[in-house]
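Tokens as discussed.
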């Protein structure tokens, strides 16, 4: 019992002569490892000289740590961790974890082949083989820890950069800075973009972001998103008029309450316009309790105009009032009369002294020109507000 305990406290040691052999050979072992990596790994041979030199430095530190560990094997974890901490900070960016495992495997194979030849006897040979296996295990754990820490730091940086991009879209930052930051996140600058805003739902931003991001991944769409206080802003990439309800899927990641989607713009450089309309719609959507979820900002033009949004007023004039006035007095007069009599076709025809079919024809023309059906209650509201806004704008000499 006492003997086994003593062995644990004082494990077998290599002779001083063997240790000197290993220490003298440490440099050649590292160089031979790099040469073997260049021979067996084509991707390693193609690396720039400075990057290969960094790998050599890492291996030299590992060999030095191995020699130190042979002196005191209780320090294995600390020494292997030190070896990876001394590596270049950006090594994880140009050597993946899988590639690192390949490098470590080649180095260990070389150690297993050459170190036993330096042993003075079978006992030392067994001790060296055991040491290579144990130290290799510690190196593997240290590498995994180092890459996990790098990934965590990179994820935190990406999250901050993503928030900056979304904030820049909302503020309307200069196009160059916005696109360069988005490109760093892997966003295709030519991709269409749609901004959605709404309630984040909950007080755990990481969970909210994960929920929206997972829904976007299932729809095979890229997203940029940020929780800004009491609102969640999502920039969705790709077309939205595809027949699939991609906006509806993304809206499921928001909390309770309305979700407003701005217009789909041609690229990220125009996303500020989508964000501006979406935020305007979010402020005005309270005026339409029955609004769908999500609702397009374009469908909230009456409420936005009543809330004082000049952009909404301009769109109502440009999309409805101006086309009707340019088309001639008959269409405008018919729409006015139809709305005044509450949408009763026969009454409208009598007021205008025309056949009901003439009213039907004119209302079809109105729908073709404006996209609004006067028989639909919601579209009728849009037409009425648009005509009122148009007349007010004309009275002020705005068009």
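Sequence:
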């Amino acid at each position: 019992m006492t003997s086994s305990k003593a062995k644990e406290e004082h494990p077998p040691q290599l002779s001083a002569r063997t240790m000197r052999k290993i220490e003298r050979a440490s440099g050649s072992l590292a160089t031979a490892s790099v040469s073997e990596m260049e021979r067996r790994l084509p991707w390693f041979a193609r690396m720039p000289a400075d990057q290969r030199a960094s790998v050599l430095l890492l291996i030299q530190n590992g060999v030095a740590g191995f020699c130190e560990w042979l002196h005191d094997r209780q320090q294995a974890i600390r020494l292997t961790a030190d070896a990876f901490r001394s590596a270049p900070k950006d090594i994880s960016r140009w050597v993946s974890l899988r590639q690192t495992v390949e490098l470590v495997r080649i180095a260990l194979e070389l150690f297993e082949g050459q170190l036993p030849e330096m042993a003075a006897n079978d006992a030392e040979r067994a001790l060296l083989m055991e040491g290579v296996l144990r130290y290799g295990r510690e190196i593997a754990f240290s590498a995994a820890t180092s890459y996990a820490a790098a990934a965590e730091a990179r994820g935190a940086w990406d999250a901050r950069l993503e928030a900056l991009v979304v904030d820049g879209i909302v503020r309307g930052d200069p196009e160059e800075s916005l696109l360069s930051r988005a490109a760093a996140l892997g966003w295709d600058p030519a991709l269409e973009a749609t901004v959605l805003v709404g309630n984040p739902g909950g007080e755990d931003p990481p969970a909210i972001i994960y929920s929206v991001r997972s829904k976007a991944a299932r729809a095979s769409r890229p997203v940029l998103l940020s929780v800004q206080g009491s609102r969640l802003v999502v920039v969705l990439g790709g077309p939205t008029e595809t027949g699939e309800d991609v906006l509806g899927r993304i809206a499921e990641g928001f909390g309770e309450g309305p979700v407003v989607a701005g217009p789909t713009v041609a690229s990220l450089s125009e996303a500020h316009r989508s964000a501006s309309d979406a935020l305007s719609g979010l402020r005005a959507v309270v005026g339409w309790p029955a609004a769908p979820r999500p609702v397009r900002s374009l469908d909230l033009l009456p409420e936005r105009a009543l809330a004082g949004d000049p952009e909404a007023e301009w769109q109502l004039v440009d999309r409805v009032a101006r086309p009707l006035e340019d088309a001639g007095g008959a269409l405008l007069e018919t729409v006015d009369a139809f709305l005044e009599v509450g949408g009763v076709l026969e009454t409208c025809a009598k007021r205008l002294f025309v056949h009901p079919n003439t009213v039907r024809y004119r209302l079809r023309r109105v729908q073709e020109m404006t996209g609004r059906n006067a028989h639909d209650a919601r579209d009728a509201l849009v037409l009425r507000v648009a005509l009122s806004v148009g007349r007010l704008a004309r009275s002020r000499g705005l068009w």
